[in-house]
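for the writeup, i need someone to sanity check this before i put it in the appendix. the sequnce is what the collaborator sent (i think, or maybe the updated version? ugh). structure was predicted straight from it, no edits. if anything looks off just tell me and ill rerun, i have time this weekend
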Amino acid sequence: MKNQFDKITDRRGTASLKWDVAKNELPMWVADMDFPAAPEIRAELQKKLDHGIFGYSVIPKEWNLAIVNWWKRRHHFCMEPDWLIFCTGVVPALSSAVRRLTMPGEYVLVQTPVYNIFFHSIQNNGRKVLENPLLYKDGLYSVDFEDLEKKLADPQTTLMILCNPHNPIGKIWDRETLARIGHLAAKYHVTVIADEIHCDLTDPNREYTPFASVNAECLQDSITCIAPTKTFNLAGIQSAAVCVPDPALRQKMERALNTDDVAEPNVFAIPAAIAAFTKGDAWLDELRAYIYENKQTAAAFLKERLPQIYPVPSDATYLLWLDCSAVCKNTSDLQAFLRQKTGLYVTGGAQYGGSGEKFLRMNIACPRETLKDGLARLLDGIALYLKAGE
């Protein structure tokens, strides 16, 4: 299995969102890996397929236990099985929480630059985005706690969406930082909903800290959204979980998810999750090592061949956050230029808020030859862009 991630799988013509592009284009944008799911997961899905009947599904206790045991084994956090609620995805859970836990016109706080869909979940439901921009100094990010407290103290701020690990910067928030966030949120009666979908995609020998595991304040006033989908490349199967320790808050989330009709699984969602969380350890550890090597390959290439582009150091996710401030002030035009001239399709950073307009996001969860192709296109594209600007 050691070289399983080197194999290039042709995804064109498969109704793939990522690969629905022109023939000459190389998509390295949406957070979707170019690796087949773990064999153990595919085997369980094949069993379901071979059975041939795809009726309505229930959620067995094995699903709860698979998640509880995984988080205890991998992340040293002891959940209770009844804390868990099935949901079709993290984004539906976030949107349901916004609708149920806030009132129209209230603020939902996010720490920018951050996953752009957070803005949609807030604004599409008639709430207002309140940004707590992360501090960016000497190529590293940290929380601006002075600004955070000021904005949490606003009576109109009733919910905070925490991204842990943080997308797009790839940062694992440490226990001290999470504790300070939890304390301020509790102080000002703000509920924290933690999007922890990238939590298993850490560098080798790096662990993330679940927000709810930090202390009693974080545990009782939080909702945690988790899923096997990013980790095991199962996004199209639509399988996630919402962990809510506090009974009153859990009742509100159960009502919200059921009202929005996002609490019933499709026929593959449960067996995929159980297989992932009971049989996926070895595959995941190999994947993490491979992605880390991809990060090292990209960093070495940029340092040697393209020093104008600075990859922000990360310890989680498979997303490179590329500081392009030495090349341009806003990457919107650069992103379009790269796609037009070289076929490289990456994401402009402005949509993530904060200082994101100076960055590009690049997905490197792909075979190494594909990564090298993308880096070569980036090199050529930047050269053409700089020449065009002369």
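The chain has two domains: 4-39+281-388, 53-279. The chain has 13 helices and 15 strands.
thx in advance!!
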